[in-house]
Specification:
Elements: H1 3-7, H2 11-16, H3 22-34, H4 36-55, H5 62-79, H6 95-102, E1 115-122, E2 125-132, E3 136-139, E4 145-152, E5 155-159, E6 162-166, E7 171-174, E8 180-184, E9 189-196
Antiparallel strand pairs: 1-2, 2-9, 3-8, 4-7, 4-9, 5-6, 5-8
Helix pairs in contact: 3-4
Length: 197
């Protein structure tokens, strides 16, 4: 391939956005070493793409900063968890740390009846330690954000048309307005249940 044909082939742009096959990447890199014009063109294209990205950047919604701050505060709070100030559970929550925190609250001899211990109920947030050997019947939430973090045991969460197998460390955010059930697949399940209104 001649140099001008190579420069106008579009391969350099595809190289910069990482969409070439490995053999094409090797070709671009060897041409870059052989021809200063290829090296200069790549630098020019990189500069153009960067300027274009900055010029067309979309600023995140102002609430995104609030959500990110809340997420980082929660991660920090999980490093020093206390029953008097539990953080919100999320997909980033550490189930082992939660289990260690709530172990003193667990009944010594679980009888198979549903056990619930309120952990937090303030500012629209309710968190409950739950142990259950019985399934959760179908329910739908229209304005209440429900989520849970599995600490021990296994279950199948059925949301709409989806079945999700869950075990220790798994987190589930239940979408609004979708029917859901939970089928316990182990002797019992221990979880943190969270409602945010």
């Amino acid at each position: 391939m001649e140099l001008n044909e190579f420069l106008n082939s579009g391969m350099l742009e595809l190289y910069l956005i990482n969409t070439l096959h490995p053999e094409e990447v090797s070709l671009v890199e060897s041409m870059r070493k052989l021809y200063p014009e290829v090296h200069a063109e790549l630098a020019k294209l990189e500069s153009f793409l960067e300027e274009d990205a900055i010029r067309n950047a979309v600023s995140p919604h102002t609430r995104m900063d609030e959500k990110m701050a809340l997420m980082f505060n929660n991660l920090e709070a999980e490093q020093n968890m206390q029953l008097s100030a539990t953080p919100l559970i999320s997909a980033l929550s550490n189930a082992d740390a939660w289990l260690e925190l709530v172990t003193p609250l667990l009944p010594e001899n679980y009888s198979g009846e549903r056990f619930e211990k309120l952990l937090r109920h303030e500012n629209g947030v309710m968190q409950v330690l739950v142990i259950s050997a019985t399934d959760v019947e179908e329910e739908v939430h229209e304005s209440l954000d429900e989520s849970f973090l599995i600490l021990k045991g296994t279950c199948i969460c059925h949301i709409g048309e989806h079945f999700i197998n869950m075990g220790p460390g798994d987190f589930m955010q239940i979408p609004l307005n979708l029917p859901h059930t939970v089928t316990i697949t182990s002797e019992s399940i221990t979880a943190i249940l969270q409602h945010i209104s």
